[in-house]
Amino acid sequence: MNRDHEFMALALEQARKSYDEGGVPVGAVMVENGKVLAAGHNQRVQQGDPIAHGEMDCIRKAGRCARYDTVTLYTTLSPCMMCAGAIVQFGIGRVVVGEDRNFKGNAGFLREHGVEVSLLDDEGCRSLMDAFIAERPDLWDEDIAGNG
Ligand SMILES: [Zn+2]
């Protein structure tokens, strides 16, 4: 049974939470053996932390893990190079991406480093980012330092 959409819905819930807080709406969840290890979202605005992208916040919230090879990370938006680097560094086995139309991200880099990547092209993830980018182009530009 493919539960990717179910877990992506949880990541999108996190993204909406950040949006409602006036933050960048990217959410992530980490899952191992069908169990959610952690959920997080971008905290740039909320915590004044430029490194706290959704994926980084989620990895941090999961706390210490000895191994990540059986972990799947769900993220509403294709990972930037910082987050892709953390994914490769920790050897996260699989990444499921909500959408990559608003930000191409680094799926190729992840695959080159042995990470399995699945793209859902989820309409909910896409429309939330569309709305945010239209409403706060300044904040979006800041989050990726103009490297979109
Ligand atoms: Zn990132």
Automatic annotation (TrEMBL):
Its main location: cytoplasm. Pathway: Pyrimidine metabolism. InterPro entries: CMP_dCMP_dom, Cytidine_deaminase-like. Its cofactor is Zn(2+). One of its GO terms (cellular component) is cytoplasm. It comes from the Bacteria. It is found in: Cytoplasm. PROSITE patterns: CYT_DCMP_DEAMINASES_2 (PS51747). This is Cytosine deaminase. It comes from Chlorobaculum tepidum (strain ATCC 49652 / DSM 12025 / NBRC 103806 / TLS). The gene is cdd.
